[in-house]
Amino acid sequence: MTFLTQLLNGLQLGSIYALVALGYTMVYGIIxxxxxxxGDIIMVGAxxxxxxxxxxxxxxxxxxxxxxxxxxxxxxxIDKVAYxxxxxxxRLSILITAIGVSYFLENGAQxxxxxxxxxxxxxxxxxxxxxxxxxxxLNAIITIIVTAVCTVxxxxxxxxxxxxxxxxxxxxxMGAARLMGINVNTTISFTFALGxxxxxxxxxxxxxxxxxxxxxxxxxLGTKAFVAAVLGGIGxxxxxxxxxxxxxxxxxxxxALGLSVWKDAVVFLLLIIVxxxxxxGILGRTMNEKV
Amino acid sequence: MEEDMATKGKPIISTGSPKGSxxxxxxxxxxxxxxxxxxxxxxxxxxxMMIDNGSISRYQGSVLEQVGIYIIMAVSLNIATGxxxxxxxxHAGFMSVGGYSxxxxxxxxxxxxxxxxxxxxxxxPATTLLFVCGLIxxxxxxxxxxxxxxxxxxxxxGDYLAIITxxxxxxxxxxxxxxxSVVGFQLTGGAKGLTGIPSYTNFxxxxxxxxxxxxxxxxxxxxxxxxxxxxxxxxxxxxEATGVNTTYxxxxxxxxxxxxxxxxxxxxxxxxxxxxPAKFGFMKSIEILVMVVLGGMGSMLGSVxxxxxxxxxxxxxxxxxxxxxxxxxxxxxLVMIFRPQGLLGDYDFSxxxxxxxxxxxxxxxxxxxxxxxxxxx
Lengths: 291, 377
Description:
The structure holds 2 protein chains of 2 kinds.
Chain A: H1 2-31, H2 38-55, H3 60-83, H4 91-113, E1 118-119, E2 128-131, E3 134-137, H5 138-160, H6 162-172, H7 174-179, H8 184-210, E4 212-213, H9 217-232, H10 237-256, H11 263-277
Antiparallel strand pairs in A: 1-4, 2-3
Helix pairs in contact in A: 1-5, 1-8, 1-9, 1-10, 2-3, 2-4, 2-8, 2-9, 3-8, 5-6, 5-8, 6-8, 9-10, 9-11, 10-11
Chain B: H1 2-13, H2 29-52, H3 58-83, H4 91-110, H5 117-122, H6 125-153, H7 158-183, H8 203-222, H9 224-234, H10 236-241, H11 246-272, H12 282-295, H13 300-316, H14 324-338, H15 351-359, H16 367-376
Helix pairs in contact in B: 1-16, 2-8, 3-8, 3-11, 3-12, 3-13, 4-6, 4-7, 4-11, 6-11, 8-9, 9-11, 12-13, 12-14
């Protein structure tokens, strides 16, 4: 019984990490950028949910739609304003810019909303359902299902559609893709939109699980999701899901042992071990560097 | 017209003048060291005198101490970012290791060495010894952490290194928070923080440490080892092909960077008086990174100026303090877009070279005049 609850908790947390990790993996896969601002996009999404439901008193469905739309727009905007001018700059410059964007969003949110946590109202009224005498958290089940659907849709999109093909081509060789008539900028923007939309969904799921929004919530969530993406092998969609679930389970497992204060350390230790043993991650491909 | 002047003005700059009439005077390395030492001592003595007679208030003095600390932090991060070309995001982690170990070392040694809190205000040989040992101990502890993280991290590149150092700093923070329950006695004080640290820093000893640190980093970067580190930054594969042991030098730069971060942390503990793990989060690392990036990656002068400026500014403009972080972020993005190498790039100021120009009659502010004089001749 408790084991089942813990399992469900792990799956729920892991699913959220997986969704966020998917966003990291896609952006990294296409322009080799560790999008530090990704976690903060989720934070903005959570605040949008809070504004729509707690401030304006509108329906949760609208909150979901607006959060996802807001995150998508924000992601594309960030790409256009901050990253696009640096497309050909050294990697370090783009990385620092990404940190700057992340820093801006965090402190901007702190300035606008204040540093204290805002309580996001519940999206659904019933919290548990009973299956065969065992009560399960409805939030957890919704989270797991949504993540599974998103992953499948994303995988189909990348593998089967023309846009997906363009994305894969750009990620393989941007110059050659341009010569083949692919609109590189549109493709990159689309990738950002897709990744940020996933972040928006992640924001809603996170608010469902923890029902609060703080300006700095994105740092830890984002970092752990990146850890998940690296664990699974960055650039790989199934890898992100596997990594996300691994991180989620590791955290829940450590907490269940009564060592919850150490859970962050355990996740990063996991990352260091994986990077030392297999730097490409579980499902990652090795890339040879050309001189 | 202008071209004409430029060509005529050339012999001033080149040493081997075709006319042979003007032999360029130079200053020997020894003299340069003496000049710099005298100037540094002068600045510190004048600063201390101004504090003693009250023209710099106690509060301003403590801000100046923080300026010194952040100069060390920025310059030490610059070793890894500007000179080595990596992006560690866990500098605050090394700072906290250095700070905690230095403070704990000094607090635990006070008893056996019969030093009281009061002695630190007056200053005795024992407190000086304790101060030096504490800082070195803090630096070494941070350097060991740098070594532990550097060996796995430096096998990776760019983003991975950034994330692994960020993760490591986070591990350090969690360890500092919870180590008391593991060791079974009060070591770091957990979330409440470590209190009762004697104020073992003052203006003079802070800036003596700053000067020594800058000198050591400068000489390292001008040596064979420094050139190897720069070669790795410019092209790692080419550096390896020319026989630079890249792993060794990357680790070296990383460890030296961590060492000085630890020294800075040791000073910080003495200056602030309270250590709490929450102070050394990701935000602190970014704050230091902003200083390095803004000043110019690879420019020591740039790091010093921006560390000074960015430490004093929020203190001077209290109203600005709320917006500080947002402004930092915007500045960071704008600098990256419009001037990716930082405001000063890799320009560095050399007192010796400057004086050499002066004694040769090349006043930087009178460039035009000098050229005109030459043209008249």
